[in-house]
Amino acid sequence: MAFWWPLLVLAFAYAICRFLLMLIPSNVPSIDVDASDVLDDGNQTMENSFIYIPSRRQTDKVPCYEPATMKYLGYFPALKPDEVKERVAQARKAQKIWAQSSFKQRRQFLRILLKYIIEHQDLICEISSRDTGKTMVDASLGEIMTTCEKITWLLSEGEKWLKTEYRSCGRSMIHKTAKVEFHPLGVIGAIVSWNYPFHNIFNPMLAAVFSGNSIVIKVSEHASWSGCFYLRIIQAALAAIGAPENLVEVITGFAETGEALVSSVDKIIFVGSPGVGRMIMRNAADTLIPVTLELGGKDAFIVCEDVNVPHVAQIAVRGALQSSGQNCAGAERFYVHKDIHSAFVAEVVKIVKSVTAGPPLLGKYDMGAICMQEHSEKLQSLVNDALDKGAEIAGRGSVGNIGEGAVDQYFPPTVIINMNHTMKLMQEEAFGPIMPIMKFSSDEEVVELANDSKYGLGCAVFSGSQRRAKQIASQIHSGVAAVNDFASTYMCQSLPFGGVKESGFGRFAGVEGLRACCLVKSVVEDRWWPFIKTKIPKPIQYPISENGFKFQESLVEALYGLNVWDRLRSLVDVLKMLSDQNASKGNKRTD
After folding, report:
1. Which residues belong to any copy of the Aldehyde dehydrogenase domain (predicted)?
2. How far apart are CA 9 and CA 11, in angstroms?
3. Is 184:517 a contact under the CB 8 Å cutoff?
4. Residue 490 CB partners (closer than 8 Å, separation 6+)
C-alpha cells in the first residue's frame, strides 16, 4: 500500500490539473463571415422568390434552388477547363508556402473553425437544409457532429501521426536507422456529393490542409449554393492565421469541370456513383495520380432473434430514413430472423406511420425533401418492381402540407416485406426512405445474403450475444461494420472509412486517411555516422573474386539461417573469406 499510495495521489493530481486546464478558455479568435445574402428573412425580392423549374440543359451556369420549395437561390459559374487549371495553379503556389507552416499554426486554424461551427450551428444547418432538403436535426447529426469530431481528433492526434516514424532496420542493416517521413503531396483535388454539403467539403479539406497540402474541391451541381458559402468560413479562418490566399478553393460546374480538376492535381478524392468513379479512374490514369473512391453502398442491417425489438426498431428506422434518403452509409437492406419477423415489422410500421415528411425549416416534420429532381420517380420504380415480384407494402408514413405551388419533391417513408434478391430494391442503391425487410433462418444464411451484393461499404449486426454479433459482422465483406449499433464507426474519426467491391477503395478519415494525403517517404541513414559507414565487402567488389558467390551464400545463412549453429558456422566462413581476401591483397602489395 505504501508503494501505491503516492502513485494514486499523483494520478489524481494530474487528472485535476487536466480538468482545470479544460476550464481555462483558449485564446481562439472569432471570425466574421458575411451571411446576409444567404439568410431567408422572408423579404425575398421577386427575382429570387419564384418557383424554379430546373433546366435539363447544361449551360455555363449552375442553377440552385431549394428542393423542399423549389424556390430559386441563384446561380454559380460552370468553370471551364482553363479556369480550373488556373485555380489549381494558384492553389499550388499557396501550398509551397503552407508546406512550411508549423503544426501549432495548423491547430489554431482548426480551433478557429471549431469555435465558429459551435457558435453558428443553426446557420450552418439551415443552409444545408435549404440546399438539400434535409431537416435541421439530420443536418446537425450528419454535418455538425461528424465535422466537430474530425476536428477534435486532428487536434488531439493529427501531429502524432504525421511525425517521422522510426521502423526496425532488420538484421543486415543493424548499423542503419530506418524511418518513414510524411510530406505533403501538393494539391489535393476532391469531387464531392450533395448529400452532406458541409461535411463533404470539410472532411477532405481538414485532412489536406492539416497535412500541409492545398485543396481544390468541386462541389456537386445539386449543392453549389451551400458549398460556396461554406468556403467563406474556411477562407476567414485561414486569413485569421495569416495563411496564404487560395490555399482552399471551391469550384462549381458539371462533368467538364471535374475532368479538368482530375487532370491538374496530385491526388483525387471522389465521393459519388460507381459509374462516375470509373470515369475518374480512367482520367487519373493519364497522369498516374493516386485515387480514393467512395462510391456508395447497400448496407445490410441484420437483426437476430435475441434482440430487444423496440430498441432495435428505432435504430433501424433512423438508419433507413436519415436525411430523407440522403444517406451516407445508410441501411438499405434489412434482414430479420424469422422468429421475430412479425413483431419487428409491426414495431417498425408503428414508428414509420408516425413519420411525416414536409418542408424541413417549418420544424414540425420528421423528414425533409428528396434533393435531386425526379429521384422520387426512381424510388417508385424500385418499389413497383418489388411489388410486381411479390413484395407487399407493410406501412407508409405521410407527406404533410407542402404548400400551394410547390413542386412535389417528397417520398413517404415506406416499409416493404416479402422481399427477395431478385428484386432491384435489394440490389441497387436506392438513396431513399425505404425499408425492404427480408427473413432469414440461420447465421450462415444471413452472411450469404449480406455478401450477395456488388457493394461492400458497411453493415450493422444486432444480437443479444455480443460474441455472435461480432462473429457475423466479421464474415461480411465490407469496409466498416457496427456491432449492436448503426453508423457509429464514422463517429470514431480515428477509424478509416471506405469500402470494397463497387463501394470503391482507399480510405479517408483516421490515420490511413490522413496519411493518404502525404508522400510517404522511406529513409535510411547511418546510425553511427561518420564512425561506421557502409563498405562493400572485398569478395564482391569489382572485379568480383572467384569466391564472391560463396561469400554471399555464407552471408545469407549467417544472417537468416534457422539453426543457430549453422549461422555461427556461416559467420566463421564469412570472416575467413574476408581475412583471406585482405591477406591476398596484402601479399600483392608486398610483391
Report:
1. 58-523
2. 5
3. yes
4. 146, 328, 329, 480, 497, 509
Q: Which amino acid is at 172?
A: S
Is residue 73 within 8 Å of 130, Cβ to Cβ?
yes
C-alpha dihedral (462, 464, 466, 469), degrees to nearest 10: -40
DSSP class per residue in 534-564: ----GGGSSSPPTTHHHHHHHHHHHHH-SSH
User: For residue 211, which amino acid is it?
Assistant: S
Residue 210: all three cell numbers together: 492539416
Is 294 among the residues known to form the active site? yes
CB-side exposure of 464: number of CA atoms within 13 Å? 6
Residue with cell 455480443: 466
* Angle, in degrees to the nearest 10, between helices 309-321 and 341-352: 50
Cell 490539473 belongs to 17
- Are 294 and 507 in contact by the 8 Å Cβ rule? The answer is no
DSSP codes of every residue in 133-160: ---HHHHIIIIIIHHHHHHHHIIIIIHH
Residues 367 and 324: beta-carbon distance below 8 Å? yes
Q: Collapsing DSSP states into helix, strand and coil, what is residue 301?
A: strand
CB contact set of 208 (below 8 Å; sequence gap of 6+)? 188, 190, 214, 215, 517
What 8-state DSSP symbol labels residue 544?
P
The H or E element spanning position 216 is: strand 214-218
Note if the bond before 530 is cis, omega within 30 degrees: yes
Question: Which DSSP letter does residue 497 get?
Answer: B
Those residues of the chain that have pLDDT short of 50 are 43-48, 323-329
Q: Is the pTM of this model over 0.85?
A: yes
Tell me, what's the pLDDT at 301?
A: 97
List the grid coordinates of 196: 452532406
Closest CA to 519 of 214, 130, 213, 135: 213
> Could you tell me the CA-to-CA distances from 526 to 70, 153, 176, 177 in Å, in that order?
67, 35, 4, 6
Which 8-state DSSP code applies to residue 475? T
CB 483 within 8 A of CB 276: no
What are the tens digits of pLDDT across the range 142-201?
Answer: 999 999 999 999 999 999 999 999 999 999 998 899 999 999 999 999 999 998 999 999
Q: Is 195:328 a contact under the CB 8 Å cutoff?
A: yes
Look at residue 555 in the predicted model and tell me its pLDDT.
Answer: 95
Cis preceding-peptide flag for 543 (omega within 30 of 0) = yes
363, 136 in Cβ contact below 8 A? Answer: yes
Structure confidence by residue, pLDDT tens digits, 503-528:
999 998 999 999 999 999 999 999 98
C-alpha cell at 476: 461480411
